[in-house]
Structure formats: structure tokens, C-alpha cells
Amino acid sequence: MKIAGLEPFSLIDFPGKIAAVVFTQGCNFRCPYCYNPELVDPLRYGALLDEQAIFSFLNERRGELEAVVLGGGEPTLQNDLADFLRAVRRLGYATKLDTNGSQPDLLARLLQEGLLDYIAMDLKAPLARYASYVQAPGDTQAISRSLDMVKGSGIDHELRTTVVSGDLQQADFQALAQLALGARRYVLQRFQSRPALVDQTYTGRKAPSLADLQSLAPLFLEYVGSFEVR
């Protein structure tokens, strides 16, 4: 796999578990607020990490770490993702996938093989706005298929939306909540302004207040099991 980064210890990326996070290189979306441009923009790619070194690290940390999270970039663009997950599970780790939901066929195979314990799927915007919001051709049928699979997977999962002040309106949140009907958990993530973003015009943009996002809880809880702001 094209591995561009490793977070060796995380208490926040896999709910309830101590995890390492493996970051893959490459993404088919160009979300303007993304703060990992070195994983998204080929002009900003850095050197890749050795996959065998990653497994040596994971082998050494058995008993200390409990889980491995696959993030990116977009991990489902990696042709050998299933092989990687199998090897991780043979070491005794739980696995979590962070995905944009654009590759439902691969997601279906991972679920059918039982290679995932947790899925976090991003919902970027209401489906009608998807292509413009991710700044790339958007197959909303693929997003819908993945969404249905995640909700019906029987494994723990969350849906996530990153919120920048002014980008999403009340009607958009209503549409997202309705899309999420039946999901276990919905998370609204506050935008983080950083010097390096995929779209530099977003540097300096603001995040909504915690209070503003928390006020949306009653709306989302009509459709999902739990709601959280991060």
C-alpha cells in the first residue's frame, strides 16, 4: 500500500480503543477544508513509508495497542487494502476504516469478508451539492450505496460532516439528517483552519461555535441513535 504517515498512538480515532493510525496517499476528492494536502495533492506528495516497517511496529506493540485505523487520503483507492487489513487482523488488532464512501464495491467486499470492526464515513454535503463541494466529479449513487451499506452493516459506525461557517445552511443539515436515517451515530466536526489546506482560500475561514453545532442535536436525533460535536 501507499502509506504516507503513521500516528503511533491515538485515544480519539477509534472510540474506546487505543489505536495506531495509518495514513494512505491519494484521494479522489478535493475538499477545500482538508488539512492533509500532502495526502491529496500529487504535487505535494512526500516519501512513502515502508510497509514492512509498519508491520514490524504493529507486531512490537501488540498488547499495548488495540486497534489500527486506516485513514488518508482515501484508503479505498488502495488496491491491496484488503490484504493489508487481513494482515493487521492476523496480529490481533481491531480495524477501523475512515472513508469518503466513493468505492462501494470494495467496501462491500471488506464487509462481506468481515475485515472491519468500525466504519467512519464522511458525508460532505447534501447529495445535490456533492460535486461542487468536493471539487471533483461526484457519483452520488456510489455515495448512497456506501451509506446504505454502512447503516446496514451491523458493525459500529459513524457518519461525519466537517462544518465551515457559512458553507452549510439549516436546510442542508436537515437533508443530511434525513440521509442518515437509521445510522448509529452522527458527528459534526468543526473546521480547523491551518496554514496548509487543499484550498488556500479556506485558510482563515472560521468554524461554527460549539453551541451552534450542539443546537442541531434535536434535529439529528430524530433520525440517528446518537449525536456528537467534535
Short description:
The chain is 30% helix and 21% strand.
Structure description:
By secondary structure, this protein is α/β, with parallel strands linked by helices. The protein has one domain (3-229): TIM Barrel (Alpha-Beta Barrel), CATH 3.20.20. The protein has helices at residues 37-40, 51-60, 81-90, 104-112, 130-134, 140-151, 170-179, 210-214, 217-221; strands at 3-10, 19-24, 67-71, 94-99, 118-122, 156-163, 185-190, 226-229. It has an eight-stranded mixed beta sheet. Helix 4 packs parallel to helix 6. The longest helix is centred in the middle third of the chain and has 12 residues, at 140-151. The mean pLDDT is 96.
Q: How far from one another are the termini?
A: 30 Å
How many discrete structural domains?
Answer: 1
Mean pLDDT across residues: 96
Helix-strand makeup class: alpha/beta
Which superfamily, in CATH terms, is the homologous superfamily? Aldolase class I
Query: Radius of gyration from the CA trace?
Result: 17 Å
CATH topology: TIM Barrel
Report the order of strands and helices: EEHHEHEHEHHEHEHHE
CATH architecture: Alpha-Beta Barrel
Q: Which word captures the global form?
A: globular
* Major sheet strand order: 1-2-3-4-5-6-7-8
